[in-house]
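Narrative summary of target 7.
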Amino acid sequence: MTSEPSLPGDPATGPGPAAPAEVVARQRAELERLRDQAATAAVLERAKGVLMGVTGCAPDAAHEELLQRAKDGNRSLLEQCWLTLGALPPPRERPSHPATPPAPAGAGESAPVGSRASAEVLEALGRALLRVGSPHELAGCLLDRLAPAVAADAVLLYERLPEDGLALIGHAGVAPALAAQWRHVPPVPGWPPLEALRSGRPRWLERPAEDRARYLLIGPPPDRWLTRAWLPVPEGDSARVAVGVLRRREAPFTARERELLRAVARLCAGRLRTFDSPRDAGADAGAGDVPGTVQTVFDALPGQAVLLTPLRAASGEVTDYRIAAATPEATDVFGRMGRDLVGRHLLENYPAVAGTPLWQGCLRVLETGVPYESEPFAYQDAGIPAPVTATYTVRAAPLGEGMVLSWLRYDPEDRQEQRLADVQRLGNLGWANWNLLTGDISWAAQTYTVLGRRADQPPLPLERLPDLAQPEDARPLARAIAGLVSRGHPLDVPFRTGTAAGVRHLRLVAEAVTAPDGTPVEVHGFVQDLTAQRSAELALVESERAMLLQHGTLQAERALAARLQHALLPLPSKPVRLAGLRVEVAYLPAQAGIHVGGDWFSAIELPGYDALFVVGDVAGHGIDAVATMAQLRFTAKGMVSTGSSLTGALARLNQLLLHSRDGQITATMFLARYDPGRRVLAWAQAGHPPPLLVRRGEARFLDRPGGILLGATAAPVYESLELRLEPGDRLLLYTDGLVERPGEGLDAGFARLAEAVRAHGCGESGSLDALLAAMLADERRDDVCVLDIRMPLEEVHDAVGTPAEPDA
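Modeled conformation, tokenized:
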């Protein structure tokens, strides 16, 4: 490191004699020049390192290349160095004269990144590229550097194929199975990396909902990565490789992140040119780590075989294998053959092999030198456009530092017997053959299992099969067999047989092979175990029977409850007048379910010509709710009629609920008494929704006096309030079924009711039916009870003798 000269009087050297001003100025200028030289040298070395990593050239060649680029671009060497690093210099190291802006490196690109952090990322990446030997390693290198810089979670490299599709040449941060599924993609519309390569401009996918509708996204699930960037790697005037950066972060890429990713794409261009393109990997007969003569030997070998050289990580772990030679008949699942496979990676051609017993067997071959031969297995590749499945046996044998891998594809006929055994096992059936001329009998192993016989027992003649059946099934089975043997009639007969495990339900299906004269000479067929199916059918029949019985019971209960409710809660056929008030009643049962509820009302004239109004709601449905409703309804009327106060009546009703039905039922109630002489409505409530008052076109809910629902506590406190009614007033009393909706708060229901009253219920002409239609357009999940009380506009001085129906 270059040491800096000390100035006279500098604290580093202690006090000294004073110097003339011009001497001090020259020394300071010399110091600044030396500092600039040191900074330039440091930046120059960093830029040379990046260029060496990208192109693989020597240090002197990298220096000459930087000088030539600076001359061609009319830039200083320092500017060219920072441009090579992918960033502008920090403010303290930038030259004082303005730099000529460089031409963009590719379509859609902008100026380099202006951040020291970004420059450090690019510098570290450039040095790391020196150790990268394949596109797959490049993807891992990019993810290591971009994860902390831009929160990258996965990196993918796609190369454009001659037929305009894309091939995945490198990936990091994605599961091998997912990479295998998306390894080859045809030129489908809406494929972001293909669009980026065609247009030469990056694709920034930052709106997950819109991106799922517009693009084909790598998944599943497609929302695993919420933001994605696809950038073309510039190569002259075009691009053949796209870099994908996938993030779980749901946030747009910042301007700094975008510029950094563009610089990374430019930085990758040179290194990608040093790799063997997958399209041309098989063009060289000697590709790989072995001489070309080895490929010549493989060209003369029959069958399917490849020579593999292991690719190891820094820890020594085998991460993949490179195909160094291949026989002409060697074929991968995408149809590539022979020399087209040379230079490629094993997991590129057979991605589903990773982690399988075959993979572990190959590792043991490298470790022990002992050949490995696999069991027959089915191999399926999950690539696009369609999976390919075949059955193979694979053998691996060591050869030098690598191994020879050969495989044999099974002919379908070789698997016929195994497939037949699988069908019998999965279908729980066994085939059988009886030769009627020679008496030879042949049973499959599964037939013994189905019939419950030991394998060492001889097979039974056809005419003796009824001996295995239950007595009631033996005769029908014997008749069917006789018709088959004598006349060649095919049979399909169910029968039961007893075994140590219990009774089994079996089925015999057979047909005859006849001679030219029509005489049966051979019988073949199968016997199937249907025990599980029959058990399920019987259980289903029993379940349906129980459901029908339960349905009938519930229907009877509903009918009884409905009749009881109708008897206890008669509805007036038209509006009535009570104490000078017009009263209209509506009761609507719930549409859902088969139970009636416990909603009720009372509107009666009391001694002294006062009027009593009650609306209540018992929790629950069914007979218990209706019975409790009747008890509360008649008890409340009796208490108030005999002089009890409203709050006293509520307190006694609360005690009644607590001491009846084990205190398991609760109820809400609105209780009001109207004095026509004073036009005052006194009211109390127990956990009931507030009444709605409509006065002079304005609707508002009354403040409720204190009062908890009935049956909730042994020490409740009930309060009462008074309301003076004016001509034209309208008061709505209702149960909660009018305003409650699933998933909605009560405040929203109250607001909806007030709006409906303003729209359909203001004035004397307001219709209760129109109001209910507006409020109950959807299916009702609870009963609804409404009392609509109105004060006529004309003056009513004496309400005595006004017509009314008793107990409306």
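DSSP finds 20 helices and 28 strands in the chain.
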